[in-house]
Amino acid sequence: MAYWLLKTEPEEYSYSDLEHNGSTVWNGVSNALALKHLRTMTIGDLALIYHTGKERRIIGVAEVTSQPYPDPKLDDVKRVVVDLRPLQRVPQPVSLAQIKQDSSFADFDLLRLPRLSVVPVSESHWQRLLQLSKR
Description:
Oligomer: single chain
Order of helices and strands: EHEHEEEEHHEH
């Protein structure tokens, strides 16, 4: 199992929308590196859903429920999507400011590559982010 952080504009699609819908096709990714990460996802991988924009915080956890497949709305086999389902909201959202203040995240791609919308999360970073969400 791998861990991920997926960014979304909450005005376009929020964690509440995912909870309401029960599942979604995670689409709209166009960056080459982000697409490369999407292509490596497998069923059962877990993802932190991160609201961008004014919020800039981790809101919840989702599970990947499909292998990557070409976006059915596009005529481009390189543009892949995965299906997600919500698992749970984090007890306390984890802000970008909290992450930046924690020295254990010095090598975290969320901080190193801030425009990347699909970010791999190491197991140690995953555990630390979950700890921060329980404060």
